[in-house]
Specification:
With about 100 residues, the chain is of the alpha+beta class. It is built from 2 helices and 4 strands. A hairpin with a 6-residue loop joins strand 1 (about 70-75) and strand 2.
């Protein structure tokens, strides 16, 4: 009976922590995709500084989105770049601007 109680207490502590760890993992995927999309956009702009980048063009410059992360290019010019990423599994979304600053 004591062993079952101890297992119950440990499970009550571990399950909420596991959920928080998973959420942080999904957020890390979205943040990494924001940084990688920015790097691919800069590679695009080094070839075509006056052009506009789209989500479809990022793949041509080495960007591969993580499974269950949505990447959207809101503004695709070099001076006003705005890319957002969100995980479909939860957590915060991230945005990266033309200076490379990532914000939650």
């Amino acid at each position: 009976m004591i062993v079952i109680a101890i297992i119950g207490i440990l499970a009550a502590i571990a399950i909420p922590q596991f959920t928080a760890y998973r959420t942080r993992g999904y957020e890390s995927q979205a943040k990494a995709d924001a940084k990688n999309a920015y790097t691919a956009a800069q590679a695009f702009f080094s070839d075509s500084p006056a052009a506009t980048v789209t989500s479809a063009l990022l793949g041509s410059y080495g960007f591969k989105s993580t499974q269950n992360v949505t990447t959207t290019v809101a503004t695709g010019t070099q001076a006003g770049l705005s890319i957002t990423t969100t995980s479909t599994n939860g957590g915060r979304g991230f945005s990266v601007d033309s200076t490379g600053t990532i914000t939650p």
